[in-house]
Amino acid sequence: MSIYRTHTCGELRKSDVGKDVTIAGWIHSVRDHGGVIFIDLRDNYGLTQVVINPECDFYQSLDRWRVETVVQFGGAVVARTEGTVNPKLATGEIELVAKTMQILGEAEVIPFQIAKDDQAPEAMRLKYRFLDLRKDRLHKNIILRSEVIAEMRKYMTGIGFHEFQTPILTASSPEGARDYLVPSRLHPGKFYALPQAPQQFKQLLMVAGFDRYFQIAPCFRDEDARADRSPGEFYQLDMEMSFVDQEEIFKVIEGLFDHIFGKFSTKKFAASPFPRIPYLEAMRRFGSDKPDLRNPLEMIDVTECFRDCEFKAFASTVANGGVVRAIRAPQVAGKPRKFFDDLIGYAQENGAKGMAYIIWTGTEEKSPIVKFLNREILDNLKKIGGVEDGDALFFLADNEKLVQKVGGAVIPELGRQLNLIDPNEFKFCWIVDFPMFELDEETNQVCFSHNPFSMPQGGLKALETMNPLDILAYQYDIVCNGIELSSGAIRNHMPAVMYKAFEIAGYDRSVVDEKFGGMINAFKLGAPPHGGIAPGVDRIVMLLADEPNIREVIAFPFNQQAQDLMMNAPAEVTLKQLRELHLQVVLPKKMADQQNAENNAK
User: Fold this and answer.
1) Are 192 and 171 in contact (CB under 8 A)?
2) Which DSSP string corresponds to 436-468?
């Protein structure tokens, strides 16, 4: 028995009536009912109502108590009277009549309220994150995160995986996002890098013969924040398997997600197998490799309908090699003109020159472009688009890449405006057959499009005989409700194939030997076929907690500028530390000038 409590604040029930107990926690709220004081006492497990009568010897000190002070109460458990039972609380049928009290940790005036949402600024919430974590919603999110990770470990070990830890200090790689670099004291001028992912190490574990590996892995990338991406660090369920093809990996992940979402989700969940959509098809249909399958809208190819038509804007686009795509909007005939104008404006904000539309009212077709289209074209568009009376088709015409980009923005926006997306459902899909290479928009050179360690479909023969931009890879993403949860691949485990792939991407043999020497040397000594994936823990918990921002499921997140406002990181270090690391700080000129001005002013 603890010296501070016999029960938690979420434990007592009607069966405990008559017991003398001790509880401890934070003062959540205080209410004065005609001299009798009611306090809600809160701990990690819940709330218990404490009753303090005026005859208590500590009653007079109540005026000095503040909410969030940590207090211990001893007293008797009594049943609440009829009409005062609180069905929203697990402890709502009882209350504790206090006999003794001891303050364990006095609180000063708190910067924002815990018992109610007072819309505190995010910067203040992050500065006092330990207070923010006391709030019920956020507290439950972090508990959920812990439970999800525990369940992941249980599931993975249950199907034969072993958890191994890989190095945090490693070498920088030339691909991917920016590395976080760590200077070496013992090797002046040289740096470690924090791992963007345990990619090479988990492959080396397969070469070492371990067969099935997983890890709840911390990963570090110096990239900008987004709603579904935390800057600085994140966690993923990293896994790798030997002697497998991608379908075997899909089966493991689908089983895991069936288990995790089946256990923790309160929403509808479309169980496995999840749909497989080739990358090029996803881009053509949805304009995105992260489609939200809850949204029934997609792009329909109507290019041939406008070839040689009287509507010159579309006909000339087609003649110059462009495409025309249509998006069906159901039952919008009664919408005001502003609805159509606003949607066109939205398309233009996302890069479109414009966006045409046709409305089928049931008696006529309404559109500024109808006069340029004959009956055959209109009927063909209606048939191809699956149009019913009351529907409209929106049209995008330009080069295919731009049409996909704009369509990828318009489809989710139109789905939201028409309330077509069920917020109480999870829908997964696999995006497969990614291109191995793409053209760098800045240099116009061939580069890796996804993961440089992926096996090209067709192996060495494809690399030697095909146009690099036509080569597909055994690469795949898993997507849920428009959010990418993970990328993965069957790995390139053959040295000759790896050298050739990197050569096409502009890296000669010496670069591969220098940057990936550990892995390429291992492959030369017998490597099994292997592959893996790494679902993001933060994003999974964000979906399960139904939170719009990933910071709400991370205990101590950075802000959008990659700063820890609570611990004041990043921060300047001492000259002694810099000297030990053989470093000199060279500030950008604007910052240096500002610092000099401040020093001169002092």
Assistant:
1) yes
2) SEEE-TTT--EEESS-TTBPBTTHHHHHHHS-G
